[in-house]
Amino acid sequence: MTTPVLLIYNGNVMENITRVTKKGQVTVPLKYRKRFGITENTKMEFYVDPDREDVLVVKPIRDFISFKGVFSSRKKYTKESARRAYIGDVLKGKV
After folding, report:
1. SS3 for 6?
2. CA-to-CA distance for 18 and 14, rounded, in angstroms?
3. What is the Cα Rg of the chain in Å?
4. Helix (H), strand (E), coil (C) string for 15-82
5. pLDDT digits 0-9 by tens, 53-91
6. Rounded to 5 degrees, what are φ and ψ at 55?
7. How far is residue 95's CA from residue 89's CA, in Å, rounded to a whole number?
8. Which domains does the chain possess?
9. Which helix (H) or strand (E) segment is 85 a member of?
């Protein structure tokens, strides 16, 4: 007999039932994708709740690209000037 698994995000139990495909994929119901801002190519973290071994936690991961436009700068960069600045920092060992 297997233990039931609960999908939880921010303490909210994801109540909809979905199936796992042959490839191990699970469809996140639309209402949860909208609620938590999950879009195509969003990376998801899966881990077992350390306090409850029967709970699988699913959490969207924010990567660097998802922060585009969050930080403002007075200096404006073109893609090319930003690329050159980054390469310069890499060559100087700053990155």
Report:
1. strand
2. 10
3. 20
4. CCCCCECCCCCECCCHHHHHHHCCCCCCEEEEEECCCCCCEEEEEEECCHHHHCCCCCCCCCCCHHHH
5. 888 888 888 766 555 665 666 777 777 887 787 787 778
6. -115, 125
7. 6
8. 6-62 (2.10.260.10)
9. helix 79-91
Residue matched to tokens 């920092």: 89
Tokens matching residue 94: 């700053």
Buried b (16+ CB within 10 A) or exposed e, 48-57: eeeeeeebeb
Amino acid at site 40: E
Side-by-side strand order, sheet with 55-61: 12-13, 6-9, 55-61, 43-48
**This prediction's pTM:** 0.48
Report the first-to-last Cα separation within the chain, whole angstroms: 50
